[in-house]
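Hey all, quick one. A colleague (J.T.) asked me to put the coenzyme A job into the tracker so the inputs and the structure tokens live in one place instead of scattered across chat threads. No bug as far as I know, just bookkeeping. Sequence used:
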Amino acid sequence: MARSDTAAVPIGALGVDDLDAALALSAEAGWNQVAADWRLMLRLGTGFAARDGDRLVATAIVLPYRPAFGWVSMVLVNGPYRRRGLATRLVERATTALTAAGIVPVLDATPAGAEVYGRMGFRPVGNLVRWRGSCGGRFAGAPAPAITDRVRDLDTEAFGADRAAILDDLAGRPAPVAVIAPSGAGYLLSRAGRTATQLGPLVARNEAMALSLLARGLDGIAGAAVVDVPEEAAAVAAHLAGRGFVPERPYVRMALDRDAISGTPALIHAIAGPELG
Ligand SMILES: CC(C)(COP(=O)(O)OP(=O)(O)OC[C@H]1O[C@@H](n2cnc3c(N)ncnc32)[C@H](O)[C@@H]1OP(=O)(O)O)[C@@H](O)C(=O)NCCC(=O)NCCS
């Protein structure tokens, strides 16, 4: 399909009826999302779809993290439709309403995504690395933890915006592990993924607590695991390396027309995932 033809591909709404096709797009890119992830993002956010006839060929979602951010995620273009401007058009659609409302569009970009967003005015505000490894723990099947007000407040201070709805959803899933410090001064959630269990968010007031929560989480997991670690969280990276985890890919956190975003990065030892922040 030529670029001029792709410009005619209409952009409309992405909904739960698109779930199977959307999952096929994230699997094509080698990503880890399962149906529960797409459902969560479509329930809380606004989805955009590019279709060639009836066929879903590209997606983007915006998650509202009020009052600070609109999180842009799931920017995916089917292989044959790439390099024809579709990602640019989708992200423009996703960000127009946010910027008009004074909300900062933020995202975690793959290296290919960063090429697209940099041209649109997104600037780097942080670096992350995805670590992948294998755990020999026993599947713990943790009971759903209660996300207390203290955990919510800690998360808002760390992340810079309210994402209680995300935490409640993750905590309500049949997670392999979920550890909340009795003091409320740290927590770790996890979720089952397509290729691996994702550990995160890991938020804690200090490094010792972060490492203790991480160790308990890793010991409770059987099989493949991924953890997305900010570059500042060197102790977490060292702990993962010590367990045989290896860096899989970098991400760059980017904000539109900004060099910094709100929040307290020192409290974040692993993010929820690039699609959730
Ligand atoms: C990254 C991705 C979304 C880009 O989609 P796309 O529709 O091809 O992007 P666009 O056509 O809008 O690209 C606009 C510009 O960005 C740059 N760009 C896009 N993809 C690039 C790549 N893989 N490498 C280098 N530059 C790239 C180019 O400058 C391009 O303009 P050009 O084609 O005139 O040279 C697509 O390759 C994809 O789905 N990849 C797998 C999933 C992924 O990484 N998504 C991003 C998540 S943050």
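Adding what we noticed when we looked at it: The first strand starts at residue 11 and ends at 14. DSSP finds nine helices and twelve strands in the chain.
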